Each structure stands twice: as structure tokens, then as C-alpha cells.
């Protein structure tokens, strides 16, 4: 079940909105006026129309500014953290988040701050007996370079991981994102957590 984005100026969308409004139990939340006031206060901009978003699993219909104005108002809070040019550059990024137990917070932050044009979620943290830990980090001066640190109980556990359905799904869903892949085997010296 997916959300629907509806533009009242398009005949088919207008008809769908009319049908939803007539349907009993649909809650209508009109945020457009408040967001228009924010856009006018921040940027001295006036907007008309906007978009409606229907969330069928909530039976909720929400009226928002049109996409580019909504994005400007929503992300204006970043103006002291990121320049407009940096925000625009982030919109072109395609980011993958692997592992949603810890990764859900990262995915939420990326979404809330508008830090990606496309966000892909993969590998919803399937518990594997031989996987002891997995860390993903970005190279400090090059955040597009990601390093994974994975610890397996033994070689057989690693080989089983490579054959698992969720690993194959991860490989498929990130195929266009991974530019190079290099495996380095290591010997542990000191591993610990605080």
C-alpha cells in the first residue's frame, strides 16, 4: 500500500480527491495555509494550489505546498548548517542504508534533513548466528566512500552470509551504487566495546 500524490489541477486527480472527500472516515489535514504563511515570511513568496497526499493506511488526506516550495520551507532550518548550493548537491545523491535496526535512525535523519535525492533501504537486519558485528562508516573527507567492518565467527559463517537471500537482495539493490569492492581479511588484535 503506497501513498498517493494528487494535483487538483489534473482532472483525474481532481476526481480522485472528490471521491476521497466524499468517502466517510477520511481525515483531512490542511497544512497548506500554514506553510504558505511560512513561505511568505521566509522568502516573500506566494503559492497557489499545492498537492494533496493520501495515506490509505491512515485514511488521511493532507494538503501541502507544491513540491519545490514545500522543500524550501521544510529545509530552511538547514540554512545555518548547509548552503543552498550544498543542499542542492545533496538532492543529487543516491544513498543506501544497510541494516535497519541501527540504520533506521540514519535513514530518518537523511530524510528529515533532505540529504538525498534517493534513499534505498536494504538488508533489514536479518539475524545470522555467525555474524558477530557489522559497522558501516563514511571516509571523513569523502563521504561517498563507505567502509564496512564485518566480523564473522568463522569462514563458514562468512560463506553462509554470502549465500543468504538478504545478502543477494542487498547486492541487487545496491548494484548501481557500488563503484568498487575490495575484501581485506584481517586478524583481530583487540576488539571491544564500551
Annotation keywords:
about 190 residues; alpha/beta; Alpha-Beta Plaits; 2 domains; four-stranded mixed beta sheet; about 35% helix; elongated
Could you explain how this protein is built, in words?
- This protein has helices at 11-22, 32-43, 67-75, 84-91, 100-112, 155-163, 165-173, and strands spanning 4-6, 27-30, 51-55, 60-64, 94-98, 118-122, 131-139, 142-152.
- The model has no long low-confidence stretch (mean pLDDT 81).
- 37% of the residues lie in helices and 24% in strands.
- α5 (100-112) links the parallel β5 (94-98) and β6 (118-122).
- The chain has a four-stranded mixed β-sheet.
- It folds into two domains: 4-77, no CATH class; 83-173, Alpha-Beta Plaits (2-Layer Sandwich).
- The two termini are 42 Å apart.
- With 194 residues, it is of the alpha/beta class.
- The chain has seven helices and eight strands.
List the SSEs and their pairings.
Elements: E1 4-6, H1 11-22, E2 27-30, H2 32-43, E3 51-55, E4 60-64, H3 67-75, H4 84-91, E5 94-98, H5 100-112, E6 118-122, E7 131-139, E8 142-152, H6 155-163, H7 165-173
Parallel strand pairs: 2-4, 5-6
Antiparallel strand pairs: 1-3, 3-4, 7-8
Amino acid at each position: 500500500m503506497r501513498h498517493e500524490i494528487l494535483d487538483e489541477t489534473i482532472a483525474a486527480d481532481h476526481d480522485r480527491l472528490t471521491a476521497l472527500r466524499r468517502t466517510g472516515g477520511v481525515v483531512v489535514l490542511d497544512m497548506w495555509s500554514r506553510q504558505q504563511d511560512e513561505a511568505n515570511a521566509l522568502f516573500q513568496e506566494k503559492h497557489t494550489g499545492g498537492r494533496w497526499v493520501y495515506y490509505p493506511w491512515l485514511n488521511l488526506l493532507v494538503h501541502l505546498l507544491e513540491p519545490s516550495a514545500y522543500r524550501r520551507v521544510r529545509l530552511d532550518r538547514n540554512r545555518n548548517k548547509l548552503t543552498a548550493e550544498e543542499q542542492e548537491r545533496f538532492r543529487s545523491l543516491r544513498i543506501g542504508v544497510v541494516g535497519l535496526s541501527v540504520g533506521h535512525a540514519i535513514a530518518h535523519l537523511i530524510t528529515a534533513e533532505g540529504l538525498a535525492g534517493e534513499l534505498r533501504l536494504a538488508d533489514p537486519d536479518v539475524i545470522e548466528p555467525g555474524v558477530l558485528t557489522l559497522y558501516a562508516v563514511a571516509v571523513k573527507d569523502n563521504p561517498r566512500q563507505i567502509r564496512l567492518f564485518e566480523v564473522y565467527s568463522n569462514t563458514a559463517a562468512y560463506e553462509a552470509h554470502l549465500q543468504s537471500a538478504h545478502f543477494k537482495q542487498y547486492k541487487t539493490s545496491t548494484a548501481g551504487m557500488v563503484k568498487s569492492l575490495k575484501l581485506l581479511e584481517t586478524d583481530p588484535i583487540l576488539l571491544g566495546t564500551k
